[in-house]
Amino acid sequence: MPTRSTSVAIIGAGIGGLTLAVALRRRGIEAAVYEQVAELREVGAAVALSANGTHVLHRLGLRDRLAAASAVPTELVYRGWRGGERVVSYPVGDDYTARFGAPYYGVHRADLQTALAEACGQDALRLDHRLIDLVAKGEGYELEFANGTTARADLVVGADGVHSAVRRWVADAEPALYSGTSGFRGLIPVGSMPSLPDPGALQFWMGPGAHVLHYPIGDGSFVNFLAVVDEPSEWSSPSWVEEISAERLCAPFAEWHPGVGEMVAATGLHKRWALFGQAPLNRWHRNGIVLLGDAVHAMLPHHGQGANQTIEDAATLASLLHRYEPHQALPRYEHLRRARTRAIQRSSWVASELLHLPDGPSAEDRNRRLADVHRTLQWIHEHDAEAAASA
Fold first, then answer.
1. Cα distances (angstroms) measured from residue 155 to each of 12, 136, 251
2. Which of 78, 104, 215, 333 is flagged as catalytic?
């Protein structure tokens, strides 16, 4: 156990930053979250929480809150793009919970963020605090913010996403990498998609140069979808999101199954997001500054693991800081998390290519190999981050 109390400043009030704050405060460690926006707001429509994430959130006291706000998919289904034929399917629901010890949830991101913020406590949340500098002061840091305020902390955690401001104090990293793909999303009432088969399932539609992922959220009356296309070849916008017409959004899916056409046409969110990743970092911490989540291992969304790996990071770091002094905890954290997140990160890039294969022998071979996709689920979803940190 640490011989003195440690104060922690967390930069970023996303899922990872808030989960870390809740986990630390439940262990009696002082933690404050600094967020640059003036109010917490939705970024992205929904989150898929697999067992490796829900295990952690249940232990933080959010079991009932999550169950009330989430939908449990009935199946995992992979489908062909034009005819909608089932390539392979696996039960989810109670079978998944029995296998992995925790449920698979579809939850609105705003509901999850609100639940975490309330569990964290308003006294720990500092909005409208954009970090501009870190200055070493004794054994800790003074944090300077754009609003003119300062704060002190022994340990600083960068949980501020793929375009992390904190990362420059830890590692010399290349800018985030554009994947050559972009995505758009929406929350669609089930009644708006009469041709969509099995709206209660988690489904991947695979096709040439594109794929669509969707799953139910909340009470199951809405479906969250993400459509990904192999365009544009380069991303020139200074922002990672840009306005786009409804016609351009729908065009890549004009010949797809009618259910997919109904889905993408129903979105009122006419924006597309550039899908960025991050080259793996060899260094996760330096002199009491440490990175978490997308700030250190941004990955493409094709395994639904971005939020879940951030939650795993938070659980691991909180457990280690409870047991060790920071100078001991941070190397252990990096050692425990780097290989696993790197493997999932790499797998998410491979999945992007496989989901977008044109019809032909390569796609047929992929479809045969999907019969073993449960093994991918096994090593990702069965992981218990807190148990690994305590081993």
1. 14, 11, 49
2. 215
